[in-house]
Fold:
Amino acid sequence: MTEEASVRAFHEAGNEQGPLLGIYHFNARAIHALAPHGSTILDLGSGSGRFLAYLAHRRPDLRLIGLDLSREMIALGNEMLRAEGLSDRAELREGDMTTFADKFSSSPDLVTSIFSLHHLPTAAHLRACASEMGKIVRTPTGAAIWVFDHARPRREDTAIRFPEVFTPAASRAFKTDSSNSLQASWSFDELKEALRAGVGATMQGALARLLPLYQIHWHRGARTGGDTALWMAPADLPAQAATDSRDLAMLLKPVPGW
Structure:
């Protein structure tokens, strides 16, 4: 996403009343369960960093690095992180999710991907990304993996109708990008096979029941996470976001942290 309308639409969708907030809360809880105290997290395809900001507020002990190819997203996101007082432990960098494993002086403890792998244009790019994840997993940190993404629907009209039904109040730019993302997504089997080939058979996964348009995949690292004392629950999570996150947890069982 480089066009201003798309960048702004995606950024605003993750705000306090946006349609992505429940998804962000769901993912933050799952990542909390995988992230040991003081972890460094590498997030692939971070966009404008809205999710990283949300996770940073929930887990103040984490160091967060987001990679993205969109300079527009990176500039907007780093400005937001500074404004929220998070730039001392959260930053966005320009980087490619198919060549990242050797770009860091010390390996991250957890690699995450939220709504980003469907941006990879070919199966070869997906395999390259999974292979890079595997390299991080096999470092001395014994890193964990967390992936959340759409799952490609069988019918094209499902992708067209989905944003109208589930995010009716969202902007037209966001709805268009949401529909395009669904159509570009990997099937559950395609993503599962690529991740297991790159990371190993320890990868677990689930496709949402009843609404098979979301999928998760994860690998538990060498160190355990989920210390309840580290989690800073939001004091004012909107009711719709709370409902959305609980519904995702129910549809995608089993989920770390839920």
Remarks:
- The domain at 37-158+187-251 is CATH 3.40.50.150 (Rossmann fold).
